[in-house]
Design goal:
five-stranded parallel sheet, Rossmann fold, FAD/NAD(P)-binding domain, Alpha-Beta Plaits, alpha/beta
């Protein structure tokens, strides 16, 4: 057994640590501990000079174990490991004591106690460092193909970036067409560019790209494997129309006798049982809604098939299960609008002239159900007085505490368009108007100058009058008095955004974490904003949280870049934080298999458990539940953890 020579490096982190913790006292307290060969404190150990110091002392003092007392390992553990590699030392002979987040930042009012706690943490780190063992990283091949889940603007952008870089892309969308919510929006703020004019060329490019395989009416059912080697099972619903032969002539729809509410147009008009979502849909083919079809034979109906000259309608079409191998996955599942019926005081779903942002967007669209004009749903008349209520379902202790970001500017945009088209009087009740992006503040100011009235304050209730006009009661916090608006023709609820209904299933299938608001959780909000905790899986756009179109596209490009970085290498190294099984002790009871959250353990041909290092995340669940003690976690062994506990208890007994 080689001699243990531990080096301890204590970081000041400027004044982040040293402003509270007496770093010199920490060094003095541990310098004479067994196996400690060298102790130093430095202003920024993570800096280039700090790394140079680390390398120099490793070589000068022949250090073979390193303890660094600094910030969270999530920040600079890779930095310190690389410095150790450069010095010829195994990078896993490193232990980090977090004396910033765990000490100085939370104990700033008691420097003495903070220093004592830092000493305890460093002593415990040294105790564990004595038992560290060199580990070897595993290399795995990475397939040069990716799956993008969700085909809104985020999924479309990521897919095109990847496909244009030469990678094979499988784009999975649960709807019949790609485009997502942006396809339903009329204009974009703050420039009032046509949303479809921006989006539909990109949609057409996706449909025609030789490296993109488009799977509509499809959802991911199961994901096996690991980074670089995912096996994805996709369930595709039948379309009942052949994509290759359908000419989109519309003859089938013209003859269909069924009329049902059109979801794409926010149920403001009707569609047929066989239909296309909108004129520029991709793929450009009709879809038969079999749930609302009168029948698929000549006796009950069958008119669409008789009318179709191309013979594209296939009543025998069936559900398909498709298995696809990919190296990386990007999740871009988008968002849903908040269900305003959860705020009954506003009368949504009860009063016909209370609508939400999505419904007004379809009215404003020249291709929408009202050909670009906002009307009262009760009588289709043009409203003269309109009131917007902001933060419906956002910034609310009873619904969602977060800000949905896009609602303020969407309301401002709609109000400006209504004023430009009709001259109607528009009022916007707001808590705080958030114009956060480039050109947004200027757009808000121009809208106010155009005659839109902004009232700072909450709306308490909306009442309906006998003539279907509405009374809005609220407050003006600038004036400090209640305000009542009578004879309002239309109330528009600025409904916030929520995680889509599919998010729970996607997080379950992919093993992803979700934040308390339901959106998918990123690995680090600053340093890894599009990475998930699962290697090779990325999140983009509103799947990760509320954001506008520019931020969504930027994040999609970042996710595509992350996927390219993995696939471009051809192979990657996997950290050796995985469990190992002692086959002589394993009884094959499969308890470890049943509790593993990552599906990393299977029985091998000898009937004992075997861990896939590329899938295992070293969480330790199997280690703690194995009844025969056959499973151990590399780098976090029972002995290492016990040594830390014993060191702490011995310190407390002496004090």
């Amino acid at each position: 057994m080689p001699e243990k020579r531990i080096g301890v490096f204590i970081c000041h982190c400027g004044s982040n640590i040293a402003g509270v913790v007496d770093v010199e006292a920490v060094g003095e307290a541990v310098k004479n501990l067994p196996d400690v060969e060298f102790v130093s404190d430095y202003k920024y150990v993570c800096s280039k000079p700090g790394q140079a110091l680390l390398k120099e002392k490793i070589n000068t003092h022949r250090l073979n174990r390193i303890v660094i007392a600094a910030c969270s390992p999530r920040m600079h553990e890779p930095t310190f490991r690389q410095a150790m590699r450069d010095s010829g030392l195994n990078p896993y002979m490193l232990e980090i004591a977090n004396i910033r987040e765990h000490v100085s930042w939370i104990h700033s009012e008691d420097p003495k106690a903070a220093t004592e706690k830092s000493i305890d943490l460093v002593r415990m780190a040294i105790a564990r460092a004595r038992l560290l063992e060199p580990l070897k990283e595993t290399e795995v091949e990475v397939k040069k193909s990716t799956m993008v889940i969700g085909a809104g603007i985020a999924g479309i952008s990521a897919s095109l970036d990847l496909a244009n870089a030469g990678f094979k892309v499988y784009l999975v969308e649960k709807e019949a067409t790609i485009g997502g919510k942006m396809a339903r929006w009329d204009k974009t703020f703050p420039t009032l560019d046509c949303s479809s004019c921006i989006l539909t060329p990109r949609m057409a490019e996706v449909g025609a790209h030789p490296s993109i395989e488009l799977l509509t009416l499809s959802e991911v059912e199961k994901v096996d494997g690991f980074v670089g080697n995912f096996q994805v099972t996709v369930k595709q619903q039948p379309r009942y129309v052949n994509l290759d032969t359908c000419t989109s002539c519309g003859d089938c729809s013209d003859i269909c006798p069924v009329d049902i509410p059109c979801e794409f147009n926010a149920n403001l008009c009707y569609r047929k049982a066989i239909y296309v979502s909108f004129a520029q849909a991709v793929p450009s083919a009709y879809l038969l809604d079999m749930d609302n079809c009168l029948g698929v034979d000549a006796v009950r109906c069958g008119k669409c098939k008789t009318e179709c000259e191309a013979g594209a309608i296939d009543y025998d079409d069936a559900e398909k299960i498709i298995t696809i191998d990919v190296g990386t996955i990007i999740v871009a599942t988008g968002f849903d609008l908040f269900d305003a019926t959860k705020k009954p005081e506003y009368g949504y779903g009860e009063f016909p002239n209370v609508v939400n942002l999505g419904e007004v967007e379809r009215m404003l669209s020249s291709a929408g159900p009202t050909l670009g004009y906002v009307v009262r749903p009760s009588d289709s008349k043009e409203p003269q007085k309109i009131a917007y209520i902001q933060c419906v379902g956002s910034r609310d202790e009873l619904t969602n505490k977060y800000c949905s970001r896009i609602c303020c500017m969407t309301a401002v945009k709609q109000a400006r368009m209504i004023r430009d088209k009709t001259g109607a009087q528009v009022y916007i009740f707001y808590i705080d108007l958030r114009a956060f992006g480039k050109g947004y503040e200027e757009f808000y100011e121009a809208t106010a100058k155009a005659g839109v009235a902004f009232i700072r304050g909450r709306v308490g209730e909306v009442l309906q009058n006998e003539d279907h006009t509405l009374t809005v009661r609220g407050e003006d916090t600038n004036l400090g008095m209640p305000v009542t608006l009578d004879d309002i023709d239309l109330v528009v609820l600025s409904t916030g955004v929520v995680a889509p209904a599919s998010a729970k299933n996607i997080s379950r299938v992919l093993g992803l974490s979700a934040s308390p608001d339901g959106f998918l959780l990123e690995a680090h909000p600053k340093l890894r904003p599009v990475d998930s905790f699962n290697d090779g899986i990325f999140v983009a756009g509103m799947a990760q949280g509320p954001k506008d179109i520019p931020d969504t596209v930027a994040q999609a490009k970042a996710a595509a870049s992350g996927a390219m970085a993995l696939m471009g290498k051809g192979k990657i190294s996997v950290e050796p934080y995985y469990s190992v099984v002692d086959e002589e002790k394993c009884a094959g009871c499969q308890v470890c298999i049943s509790v593993c959250p990552y599906g990393a353990i299977k029985l091998n041909e000898r009937g004992v458990s075997e861990v896939n290092p590329a899938i295992c995340k070293g969480c330790g669940t199997c280690t703690s539940t194995c009844p025969s003690g056959a499973v151990s976690s590399q780098h976090y062994t029972d002995g290492q953890i016990a040594a830390m506990i014993e060191e702490y208890l011995s310190t407390q007994s002496r004090s």
